[in-house]
Each structure stands twice: as structure tokens, then as C-alpha cells.
């Protein structure tokens, strides 16, 4: 498996990575909507933004579960790579940098067809994006995650529906399981059957378990009926 690590010339973390001397491929476009055709899987190193400005390292799969896209296409999920995302997350957790490490819900583009894309991000403001010591440690950790991907046991692959954008459920489960798509509570009301089908099928390793996190009865029944048709084990939180 060839993993292509990618940065954007427009992205401040990408600029810091380049300044540090890494020779990763660069794209001209914004990280949320680019075209690229090298490798079997793409790992994008980029900025993470949040209103809290709390220093945070994150990983997530890509896609737009709802009708208002942020790069890519509406109601289209990218291909998830649960083993690789989990491997990178576990390596980031080992860093002793005094920052949070989170798994975010699936969001934004690009929604490339057939090629898994994982985002590994540094947040959450300009001082962190330009911090060469932190960014260097972050990059080295991501590379260790890529290198050690085949050591991760993915007998249990988890989907998460509901819960916050920073998925506490996925974060805990990732210590002993692999994490597929996460559809946060913000999209549950507009979630349709096609996106649920995509969340199951657009995976390098097919999920076998779904966690439904604090979803109301009507939407819970709709989601569980589709999951059962696809032989997905279901747990409720």
C-alpha cells in the first residue's frame, strides 16, 4: 500500500511542514477540495480551526453527510480507512505535548471516489500552526502511524452515529477497535438511506458494529432498520 502524504500551499500547517524540510507533495487548492491521483491512500496534513482555540491534534475521515457541502459534493462520503486512521490516532496519543488529541466526525471534502483520504490536523490557531517544534513532532508521529499500520488489529470496525463532533465514543473505542465513519448528531435529522449505505460500504475494511449515541426514537429506528439489513451489529449509548 502506497500512502501519499499531502499538504496545501495555501494551508499554514502545510507551509510550516515545508519550512521544516519535508518533501511531501503539495497541491495548489484548499485542502477541502483538491484533485490528486497518486497513491493508494492519501493523508493530508493541515490546520484545524475551532472557536475555543484549544491546542488540539485531530484525525478524521472525509465526507459531507448533509446537503450543505464544505468542499466536495453534498451527501457524499469519502472512502474510510479505519486501520490507518486508528494507527495514526494511537501514535498521536503517545505525544507528550500538553495538547488534546481527538477523533472528529466525518466532515468536509474532498469526496474523491475510490481513494481513501484521512486528515491529520493541528489546531487551533496561528501560533500553533506556526509552532515548528510542535508541528515537527506531529508529522513524525503521523509517519510512525503510517509505518505501523499493519500492526493494528481491525477485527472489530466501528461506525458511530450521533454524539458530538469530537467523538468521545470513538476516542475511547479506538484504543482496542478500528474507527470507520462517524456521523455526528448535527446531521442525524437529515441523514438519508443513501448516506447510511455509503458509511457502510465506503470502507477499506467493512464495519461490523455500529454505535448509536443519544439518538431519538424515530431516527434510531430508521437507522437500525438499515443497519440490520446490512448485517451490522448495533449497540446503544
UniProtKB/TrEMBL annotation:
The keyword Acetylation is assigned to this record: no
Superkingdom field: Archaea
Recorded source organism is: Metallosphaera yellowstonensis MK1
Record-linked Pfam families: tRNA_deacylase
**GO BP:** D-amino acid catabolic process
Protein name as annotated: D-tyrosyl-tRNA(Tyr) deacylase
- State any single GO MF term: metal ion binding
Kindly state which keywords UniProt assigns to this record, in alphabetical order.
Answer: Hydrolase, Metal-binding, Zinc
Q: Which Gene3D superfamilies does the record cross-reference, listed alphabetically?
A: AF0625-like
| InterPro entries documented for this protein | Deacylase_DtdA_archaea, DtdA
Amino acid at each position: 500500500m502506497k500512502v501519499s502524504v499531502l499538504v496545501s500551499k495555501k494551508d499554514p500547517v502545510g507551509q510550516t511542514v515545508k519550512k521544516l524540510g519535508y518533501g511531501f507533495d503539495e497541491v495548489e487548492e484548499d485542502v477541502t477540495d483538491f484533485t490528486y491521483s497518486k497513491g493508494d491512500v492519501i493523508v493530508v496534513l493541515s490546520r484545524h480551526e475551532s472557536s475555543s482555540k484549544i491546542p488540539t491534534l485531530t484525525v478524521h475521515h472525509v465526507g459531507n453527510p448533509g446537503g450543505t457541502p464544505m468542499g466536495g459534493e453534498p451527501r457524499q462520503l469519502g472512502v474510510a480507512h479505519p486501520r490507518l486512521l486508528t494507527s495514526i490516532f494511537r501514535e498521536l496519543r503517545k505525544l507528550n505535548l500538553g495538547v488534546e488529541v481527538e477523533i472528529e466526525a466525518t466532515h468536509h471534502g474532498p469526496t474523491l471516489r475510490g481513494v481513501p483520504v484521512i486528515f491529520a490536523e493541528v489546531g487551533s490557531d496561528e501560533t500553533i500552526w506556526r509552532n515548528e517544534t510542535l508541528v515537527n513532532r506531529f508529522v513524525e508521529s503521523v509517519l510512525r502511524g503510517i509505518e505501523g499500520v499493519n500492526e493494528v488489529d481491525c477485527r472489530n470496525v466501528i461506525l458511530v452515529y450521533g454524539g458530538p463532533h469530537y467523538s468521545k465514543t470513538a476516542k475511547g473505542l479506538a484504543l482496542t477497535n478500528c474507527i470507520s465513519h462517524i456521523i455526528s448528531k448535527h446531521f442525524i435529522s437529515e441523514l438519508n438511506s443513501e448516506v447510511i449505505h455509503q458509511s457502510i460500504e465506503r470502507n477499506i475494511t467493512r464495519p461490523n458494529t455500529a454505535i448509536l449515541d443519544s439518538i431519538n426514537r424515530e431516527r434510531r429506528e430508521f437507522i437500525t432498520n438499515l443497519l440490520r439489513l446490512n448485517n451490522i451489529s448495533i449497540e446503544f449509548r
